[in-house]
Amino acid sequence: MLRLWRWLTLGALMACTPETEESAGPPPIILVSLDTVRADALGAYGSSAALTPNLDRFAREGVLFEHAYAQSTETLFSHASLFTSRYPSELGPVDYTFSFPDGTHTLASILGVHGYQTAAFVAGGHMSPVFGLGVGFETYQSDREWGSLQQTVPPALEWVSARDSSQPFLLLVHGYDAHHRYLKPSPWGYLFSDPDQRGTVYDLTRKPSGTTRLVDGYYFEDQSFDEIFYWREIRMRSPEAIAAIAREGDALGVERLTPSDIEFIRGLYSGAVSYADGWFGELMWGLEEQDLLDEAIIVVFSDHGEELGEEGLFNHRLSLDERLLHVPLMIRLPGGENGGMRVSERVALLDILPTLLDAASVAPLAEARGESLWGIQSGEPVSGHDYVYAESPARAISAQGPAGTLEFTGMAPHSPFLVSMLESAALDGPAFESSFIGTPRSQARDALLSWRRSLPASPDSAGALDAERRRVLQESGYWGGQP
Amino acid sequence: VTGWLLLWACGAEEAAAGWSQEEGLAPILAQLDADQSGDVSASEYEDRTWMSPKFDEVDQDSDGLLSAAELRGLLYSEDVQRFDGRPERKAVDKEEWARPFADERENRLIWELLNFMDQEVAFADSSVTRPSFSELDTAARTGDMDSFEVWRVLSKLQSSYQSTDLTWPEALALPATFTLRGESIPGYTDCMQTSKQEGSTPESCCDVVGGRYLADGSGGCERTVGLDHE
User: Fold this and answer.
1) pTM of the model
2) What is the complex's ipTM, to 2 decimals?
């Protein structure tokens, strides 16, 4: 009887396993960057807020990492880290003068040396060529600032169709669909919000930088965060800072949003995520049309999350908390192998480069900070990280550990004084923000210190911010009104 | 055990079934289907839309219902950057705009002005009207520039653009002159205070400051100035 069950099982395996041909060469690799999508915005991660049927299906066909973390909360630095498997401050100042140092090894440059055709279709903004993230890509196309997958998926599919099919390829497709401003074309725009909502929130959601000017529900229409915060050098989430904002808001007569206004914004965000999902479906359909799903490794991730009014904050520049750093990460193996597998260990976006080099049978990069996750192919357990770390241009670093987050604020990640400040600052003082309770807080501080000591000094700034970068940043409120 | 193995082995079955956009859009249709009738009617579509194609334009097969294929078409139908119905936004380089006023960089209102342009006028939408002082003086709310001063600042900026390659926003085109009234006319208030002692009249004070006395019974005085008559 047992033997019969074994035969039945074997028969079932033979019947159900897709007929994937053993690929002789390195696999095609496709990266899909869904900018600003929180992990908890997807159905596959347990959300019921947005509708993400295509991404949820992808999760069933791929390996889902339940606890994946970004290394920064802004597109520029997060992608720079992912492309190099290094922390942003190792590469340059964590500000908008950032550039890759000459000779930086990136995923694209390494795979290019190993015979890969490389192309990126990105949606401008921090991914704009002026910021230099295109190192190693033979094709780096960015047709629209702060654009959508609507502008990047079609040319990406055209490129795939026209490529030399005898060679492997690396393709990056990126879109800001879930980035502010959230309101998307109908019917996705108001899929989860009331189209009849009016008032301040109605106006601000139509402005390119509207929701970036919300703090604790106050809408500072004419002040950028550079003006509100950075000049005053205050910690964003401290009770003192929130109280100061409230005082200033009341003094200026600044309008404060109601709970229904905030729900309205959250609904728009969910609609934007669903819109991104629709375009992701277009991409998958197009790849299948070109018979690539049985060959390619497809990695879907977001570079950072978004604050939607929790603890008074919006946007993704003011903290390094879970909502901003916990991102979706899913890897679909050729043919959907191991589909539905979920990994609970803590991993980082900078693990992607070592994983893909491993998958392409390319020697590991010596300076990489991440670890290969390629064991997922053979079902091996993923070891994960005790702590994952992040850096913010808003002068903050953080450690995400087994029991929460420890954030240290007040010093730029590239500051040469950071280690000594970390050593001397009181753990219960204002420089630390923590969700830890008790002993783990000191362990997390030790982990932060150990991490910082392991990093080389940051390269110097390349100079002042040039006009072209300023122009791009101004487009979406990343550069304030002051010279 | 066998059942689990079957599930595991068939885990990729969905992939073999093929990706279908219409299938992927079914939950979106269900969300639009407010009365849960199984179909999306014209009114259900229009209840959730704005600035988008009318239902008649979307309903390709004219059956009065929104299908998945028709919904899929909407993914492509609008340019995301134009979703609010405004023309594509033109970038404003505030540094460039501010260059003619380099010596006034500390003047906060200049930046309020430029921010205003950045937010509103840069769209170059012909429906955008010229900003009023109250609209401009919103960040610092200092109130220390009046509407004439704002007009003068803008006019200077407009004038300076004639010698550059920059294009002045059509929506911000300014009249060549500005009409000052009553107390906003330099010297008029002083004259009126003096007049109480010397017996001067509003009419004579208006004449003293180069204004035109309004003989319509309002007793007002107005003076029209251009940039060359500051």
Assistant:
1) 0.75
2) 0.85
